[in-house]
Amino acid sequence: MRASQFLISTLKEAPADAEVASHKLMMRAGMIKKLGAGIYTYMPMGLRVIRKVEGIVREEMNRAGAVECAMPVIQPAELWQESGRFEKMGPELLRIRDRHERDFVVQPTSEEVVTDIARQELRSYKQLPKNLYQVQTKFRDERRPRFGLMRGREFIMKDAYSFDRDQDSAKKSYETMAQAYRRIFDRFGLRYRAVAADSGAIGGDLSEEFQVIAATGEDAIVYCPQSEYAANMEKAEALAPSAPRGPAKQAMQKVPTPGKSTCEDVAALLEVPLASTVKSIVLATDKLDAQGAPVSTQVWLLLLRGDHDMNEIKVGKVPGLDAGFRFATVAEIEAHFGTRPGYLGPIGLKQPVQIVADREVAVMADWICGANEEGFHTTGVNWGRDLPEPALVADIRNVVEGDLSPDGKGRLAIERGIEVGHIFYLGTKYSKAMEATFLDEDGKPKVFEMGCYGIGITRLPAAAIEQNHDERGIIWPDAIAPFTVVVCPIGMDRSADVKAAAQQLHDELAAAGIDVLLDDRGERPGAMFADWELIGVPHRVVISDRGLKEGQLEYQHRRDAAATKVPAGEIAGFVK
Ligand code: ATP
Ligand code: MG
Ligand code: MG
Ligand code: MG
């Protein structure tokens, strides 16, 4: 491929709405282009990465015995009414109408359609097990699409669905996928962890998430360095009551919280529609001085879980809390959580509001300010007062670092991750609801045992960048790089030798099956190198007159500090 034919469009500056490295760099490298909130065009350079991700996923899915199909993106509502999800799913499900006023949905996943296929096509136990997968566009009307491809509204997912005759066989299908996923994520060349996740289904433990380790990840994952134990935070917390406490937590438990200090009480006072979603509540004392600097007043933190609309939270009755609670001190909070409660900026509501969905924590100080992490992100820095840097109190949990692990083999550590894959034993949830049966060996109809298995195809490149970049740009792992090698001739328009050598090297590498791009744009060396460092092509070969006279080319890996002189014939060995 020649650069002059290809579409290369790099930017010096990232757009203002890009907050994390992967979003900034994918925009600057011309990999994606925003069309609307959470809706992106995959530009040629970005699409090459996506295709490589898909390629690896397809190879391993096929190897594991799954068969590919493609289900419609737009699906009739009837099937979704059968499963109950048309009514049950919230606003994430995009519902549309056709000219005949018929309801449709844009698929966020495809359990209904694939179950419909199974009940028609898989009639006998002899056809089982079967695993059908697709690599297909999904739409989820995410409340806060953000971080570019990381949390888009339109995105590509590989979703697979297994059908088995009984639970034992379904567990085997699940294990086969668990193995395939390990092979897939090993091949991407990223640091990841497979962590236990809550399955929600009757299947109990059969759900794992594949988390790429990254400080910017939206999920917290808990693991024990001394053992195999690894779980996402929700799963870890579900187990926490029976787990022995770590030292920090013991200190916190000494803080008396008299009377009404239950989550339910606070929920009632705040008129928060919580049901079972309040996780825990921590109250602290601190003071603000006349200028609003934090000296001491009440600071309180709420940890709620689940999806809440911030505007639903009312704080009118908050003063009533004083009576019911004994406030912990900030020092106590700090000792317990190892982090200071932060003062976060206003979120543009009339009243100070705090909420937390999942890991996000809201903080309010003397009714002056309050925003959860999302509020902070959506409003940017908008501090009504001269308050200190926002410390995001994002990790206040029932499970903390240093707790004994559930297997008793060591202390827990916590790190952040990006969920790039999720496998799930579904049981008969969909097959029962949709009466999807096959004839078993005894001639009787039986409902399918199902599993589902997702990979965020377009989230993966973003996760890869979070883990692999520097101040100059992206550093792609070879397996998913848009091009493996870029050939950079210097003075190609002036030197026939350089031109010929560049062309020859390009052709040789291409013939050897290496993904090579020849930069024939005639850019000056500085601009040319800056582009490729930004785009993150892992291997670069520079061809110059001076080098050619010595029979040498200059090879540099994207991670190398300097170039190495290599005899022209030996380049292929470096880039394989
Ligand atoms: P999240 O917790 O990040 O919202 P999820 O648990 O809702 O993800 P699943 O339903 O498990 O997602 O979907 C399978 C995979 O699809 C996820 O593991 C993730 O990699 C990817 N995915 C989900 N939502 C998005 C999105 N909005 N943008 C990009 N990829 C996504
Ligand atoms: Mg989600
Ligand atoms: Mg998730
Ligand atoms: Mg998931």
TrEMBL record:
Keyword Cell division among record annotations: no
Protein name per its UniProtKB record? Proline--tRNA ligase
Q: What is known of its domains?
A: Consists of three domains: the N-terminal catalytic domain, the editing domain and the C-terminal anticodon-binding domain.
Q: Does the keyword Iron apply?
A: no
Q: Which family does it belong to?
A: Belongs to the class-II aminoacyl-tRNA synthetase family. ProS type 1 subfamily.
The enzyme's E.C. designation = 6.1.1.15
- Supply the PROSITE patterns for this chain: AA_TRNA_LIGASE_II
Alphabetical keyword list: Aminoacyl-tRNA synthetase, ATP-binding, Cytoplasm, Ligase, Nucleotide-binding, Protein biosynthesis
Q: Which NCBIfam families match?
A: PRK09194.1, proS_fam_II
Q: Which SUPFAM superfamilies match?
A: Class II aaRS ABD-related, Class II aaRS and biotin synthetases, YbaK/ProRS associated domain
Q: Which reaction does it catalyse?
A: tRNA(Pro) + L-proline + ATP = L-prolyl-tRNA(Pro) + AMP + diphosphate
> Major location, coarse class?
cytoplasm
What's its top-level EC category?
ligase
Q: Subunit info?
A: Homodimer.
One MF term in the entry's GO annotations? proline-tRNA ligase activity
Which Pfam families does the UniProt record give?
HGTP_anticodon, tRNA-synt_2b, tRNA_edit
Q: Which residues form the Aminoacyl-transfer RNA synthetases class-II family profile domain?
A: 38-477
- Outline what the protein does: Catalyzes the attachment of proline to tRNA(Pro) in a two-step reaction: proline is first activated by ATP to form Pro-AMP and then transferred to the acceptor end of tRNA(Pro). As ProRS can inadvertently accommodate and process non-cognate amino acids such as alanine and cysteine, to avoid such errors it has two additional distinct editing activities against alanine. One activity is designated as 'pretransfer' editing and involves the tRNA(Pro)-independent hydrolysis of activated Ala-AMP.
Q: Where in the cell is it found?
A: Cytoplasm
